[in-house]
Amino acid sequence: MKSGVRIRPRRRAQVHTPNPGGMAEREGGTGGDAASGELAPSEPGGRSPTKRLHRALEDNLAVLHQLFADCSDVQFRHLELEAGRAAALVYFTGMVELEELGVEALQPLLTAFHPHTVGDYDPRQLAGRSLPVAQADVVQTVDDVVDAIVLGRAVLFVDGFDAAVSLTTTSPPRRAISEPETESVVRGPREGFTEDIIVNMSLLRQKLRTPKLKSIPYYVGTYTKTEVRLVYVEGLADEKVIAEAKRRIEGIEIDGVLESGYLEELIEDQPLSPFPQFQYSERPDTVAAQLLEGRFAILTNGTPFALVAPVTWWQFLQASEDYYERFFLVYLVRVLRYVSLFIALFLPAMYIAVTTYHQDMLPTNLVISIAAARESIPFPAILEALIMELTFEALREAGIRLPRAVGNAVSILGALVIGEAAVEAGIVSAPMVIIVALTGIASFTVPRYNAAIAIRLLRFPMMLLGAVLGMFGLVMGVMWVTVHLCKLRSFGVPYLSGFAPYKRQEVKDLFVRPPWWQMVYRPSSYAKQNRKRMNKQMMPRPESNPQ
Amino acid sequence: MRRWAAKCAVGIAALAMVPALSGCWDRREINDMAFVTAVAADRTEDGKYRVTVEVPLPGKISSVGNLGGGGGASGKKAYFIDSTVGDTFRQANADEQRAMSRQLYFAHMRVFVFGEELARDDIAQVIDVMARVPQNRMTTYLLVSDGSGADVLNAESTMEKTPAEFLRELASQSERHPRTVKRVTEALLAEGEDPYMPVVSVIETAPGNDTSKQSYVKLTGIAVFRGPKMVGMLKGREADGVLWALGEIKQPTVTVAAPGGSGYVSVIVTRYRTRVAVQREGDRVSCRITVKAMGTLAENTSPYKYEETENLPKLEREASREIADEIASGMTALRELRADPVGLCNRVYRLYPSLWHARKSDWRESLYAHIPVQVHVELDLRNTGNATSPVAVPEEDLRS
Description:
By secondary structure, chain A is α+β, with helices and mostly antiparallel strands. Chain A has helices at 32-35, 57-67, 98-112, 123-130, 142-150, 197-207, 239-250, 260-267, 284-292, 327-356, 364-374, 381-401, 404-424, 430-444, 449-487, 504-507; strands at residues 74-80, 86-92, 135-139, 154-158, 164-168, 213-220, 226-233, 279-281, 296-300, 306-309, 489-490, 493-494.
């Protein structure tokens, strides 16, 4: 393990990865192998001796009836096969495709299937030969049966055999792939992840068509059994980082995971930092680009947001479109973002510090017009700033949660309250409105929402420091943030990598974006091996263009 | 976990108390301060300082504040002028503060005017205040008034909102490098060099009929100091000549009679460079001032055509001589005052230290008074303007 990686105390293993080898290439259905994964809480120290299935159908069904008591949506479909042999299908309605089940399992079993010997009814035979279902797996323990049922499979029992077949049908239809609303682009793909991990995985695989794209499945959450996949490109991602990520995910013990945010907070390096240590994205192209730079992604079933790590701070100031649009523009835009970042973090604090302590720093005419504007304001600058900033934050919060129609009303109200009435009533001064508005606009230019949140949060302590100690306090604040950022690690990668520690190949993609033909190497902070990504002489020249 | 949480809570509580403890003790809201933008200092007859400060009234000066009801100041003027007397500069200020509801704040003082009497007496004590108090800036412009300094602040500012702004703009236009506290202090401290400052005069006019008198402020020359004491004011040609020698004159215009004919020709000097060199020959020191200038013909009331004729070099010579005469008259005036703002003796000090140290005790008489000044001006007329020949002069009357 790298020295930078914090090693957590190993918890008891709850989730096991069965047969990782066969997992990566599953498509279009939750895999059968996974069904044999042990999901129920088990004893410390490994797998408990599992209860095997009975031979008699009634005994098995009795066990299931007991386990699924008061589950009104569980179905026990009793069948009578040839020669009076009893069988039963057990599944949750709504989680299996009934039509497919009828065509692929019931029809052949009840009408077309004529066994020669008793042994042909053996589920092992059925799974392998007789049933025309794409996914059919043999299960032999009660736990496996339960897991298969809760994951949305139908389990077929045949009287007289101590095994059953789990049948996988296509998953129920989900939301269609649509443009991600949180990361819209002018130029770039319009597809975004959905809530279905299968769809998401296939979207990723359509971007990276290589067997080197690995995906390790985990089932996290005692009750939710949420499928989580660790995705990376073998040969690009640092193996130590991947091993650490595996270890951290395996260590999770929680009742449920409903969104990737649960995982993020459970496995990040510095849980008390205001700065995000995972990037999240709804865009397959963004995730694919990150995988190509040697990072890994964590897909979580039930959410369109994929987590990406290890991250550096600079990544939060880069949008996917930076790499699609021509680089001249991106030069400008990136500089603008850094300026905005500075404004969003420090402008109100600086205004407070300068107007209450360092009036000599302002040009004379400006100081007089600020004084004129503040002439009738009853509050000190810090209070004025806090009132305005809190109003702004409240408006922003109100705007997010409200339905769109009401949201317009809020913004009109906000513009009226902040822009007009407050100034006219002499409660806040016009320069302060400008400062808050500038800060607001600047904070929206940070492309990643979770980074913008960190900036938003830190603005308030900065304002207090500026109000209490002036520029001196502000400098203290800057130093604290800088030291913290220097100390921060994401899976062992320094948060300011490229700049500190300085890396020539990486630093050119931080503050500006070089043209593609100059980014010959992958960022060495993540990609430890196989660093070259293109031919060195890729800059188009007249003689290199075939006529 | 619980201990950790408790520690955190204690830490947060301690941090939360910091602002309350400090109480922001030196916090000054911007609207609780009186920004002094101009100060005039005069010497009263009984040897005290009269300090006049000008404070702009933000509520009057800016339309922004009117929204909220504005400040309490009444009257038409956008500024407030107050004058007090004290044994020292600071004492006068302290007395002034008693008449102010807001804290006097000097960091925005852009112009400082020495009254004539004070300048003749001693400026060093005031310069000491400027350099000692951190609120005062080394970039404050310094002016000497012709007469009382308070009158200058009281004169009407016709173009700017406050007299302070008007004076500041005047001062910044007076020279290439306007005299600031820093430059004047440097000159005071340098060996063999004297400070100088621009002079402003209050001029009263009655435009049109004499119903209402107007007073305004004008730059009228330079005040020449011998050490910290003003010894004279140079005006007109002499002042311009000194500024030429200093290389400080801004956009000078030279007007000469057209060589060998009627009418005048004005030349605007667009670029120039002055070199002052001292040369030692045995025990004597001589000085040579070289000006290389480039100019444009700006006005021609003579019938001469200056394009591609012999007239141009003639004019160049004539204008050069005019500049050289100006410089020479300025240097002569300076020598008579025994003041050396150009720093001839400073150059002696730097080039020939042994000579300087031998004469140091009475350098003005034994050294400075005997330095002959040779002036050499080379004017190059690059452009005769858009009109190639004098307008409305018939072709046959043109003289080449």
